[in-house]
């Protein structure tokens, strides 16, 4: 099973060590599924982790460890953005789902329109709770 995790899920796993996003991240670390990521997402993690509001809650060492771990995921080097998202900053997630032939795209962002979309291609777009109930 291949899964795209929205950056908000990855940050939530670091912020709340016993929440659903952390459960998903730990399941990946124990090889329950494969994560599909990209150079675009890895750059976003580096950049966003330096935002003042996130610096207050993210430990740089944990972000670094996560980035190192994600190097072992399926890392897409090039993305072709063919589908628009309500939030243009999320279009790369849709591209990752398609290019990585993902089964799921997991996001917690209810305002960006990804969850309302429901799917792209064969990839289901779901909340962390739904992913855990169906896949873990």
From TrEMBL:
Database matches in SMART domains: PINc (SM00670)
Domain called PIN: residue spans = 1-114
The UniProt keywords, alphabetically, are: DNA-binding, Plasmid
InterPro entries from the entry?
A: PIN-like_dom_sf, PIN_dom, PIN_toxin-like
The keyword DNA-binding is assigned to this record: yes
Write down a Pfam family by its short name: PIN_3
MF (Gene Ontology):
DNA binding
What is the protein name given in its UniProt record? DNA-binding PIN domain protein
Which source organism does the UniProt entry give? Klebsiella quasipneumoniae subsp. similipneumoniae
């Amino acid at each position: 099973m291949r899964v795209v995790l929205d950056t908000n899920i990855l940050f939530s796993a670091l912020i709340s060590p016993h929440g659903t996003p952390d459960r998903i991240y730990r399941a990946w670390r124990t090889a329950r599924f494969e994560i599909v990521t990209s150079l675009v997402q890895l750059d976003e993690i580096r950049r966003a982790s330096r935002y003042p509001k996130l610096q207050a809650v993210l430990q740089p060492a944990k972000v670094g460890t996560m980035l190192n771990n994600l190097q072992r995921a399926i890392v897409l080097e090039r993305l072709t953005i063919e589908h628009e998202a309500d939030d243009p900053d999320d279009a790369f997630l849709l591209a990752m789902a398609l290019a990585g032939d993902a089964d799921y795209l997991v996001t917690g962002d209810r305002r960006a329109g990804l969850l309302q979309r429901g799917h792209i291609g064969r990839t289901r777009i779901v909340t962390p709770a739904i992913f855990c109930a169906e896949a873990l």
